[in-house]
Amino acid sequence: MDEGKFFKDNIVAVSKHVVIFNGTGNKPKVDNPPLDDVNVGKARSGNLPPYSKPDANLIMRLPNFIQRFFTKLESPRHYTMPLVSLSGDYKISGLVTISLVEGVTQPIVGNIDLDQLLIAFDGVYNANTPIEDQSITARPPLSSGSLSLDEFAIPLSSFTAGELVRYELSKVGNTITMSFGSETKQVTRVDWAPVEVSLLGKLSNFLHSIARHADFEITDDGDKIIDWAIDENFAETSVVVNTGTLGAAGNGTAVSITESELFTLHTETNPDEWRNDDDTVIIPIG
Hints:
single chain, mainly beta, Jelly Rolls, 2 domains, 8-stranded antiparallel sheet, 6-stranded antiparallel sheet, 6% helix
């Protein structure tokens, strides 16, 4: 059987990881059932006839069908955005691969101003240093006093290098919470200063990330103003599209980035993982 020809001739509709096949093996019928929760439920329960019967449809799950672009950063690659200022409650979050470089702090979220917000991988890393000695941390700005990176540091001992993990820094009242995966740290004080964000994968003019970033969001007093999937192919565009409430005014720019890689989600593994086309890059999902 020519599987490629079968798929080409018989696929009727595609929506993420669900595919409807034409039942007869001929041209798609115009009265195929809608791809909605009702028909997906019928297919899962076996109430739709198999594709071998005339005028029938098969809904088949393709576990490896979800795809997206990931882009690896390295100096001088990074993302910029119009300066965002946050003076009340806020949430800054995203996905990042755990990427460590010998003797260098790896910025995740930053600003040109060194006194402003920094979220970063930190620790003196070298080939002989275990990941247990590394951490992810944050340094929100203060109006007075001082704050060390240790106060928000979350050790990476329960994580794996290269793993894709969600981070979140949120402020509610006088309490700021740093989260990485299921791990959290909290600090409460009254002298937090307004936060400014303008860089992703870079701090000021001298530190760059080598990580892959995705699903970056900024919420300002409950309003999601920045929502970047970072799912663009930067061989074709330099615009990071914002679907948050700022609209195009919140679009970002991919700086010095001219390529991206397409990855496919694999759910048959534990944990789930993203793989590029030739499986030379595998990103476990934390």
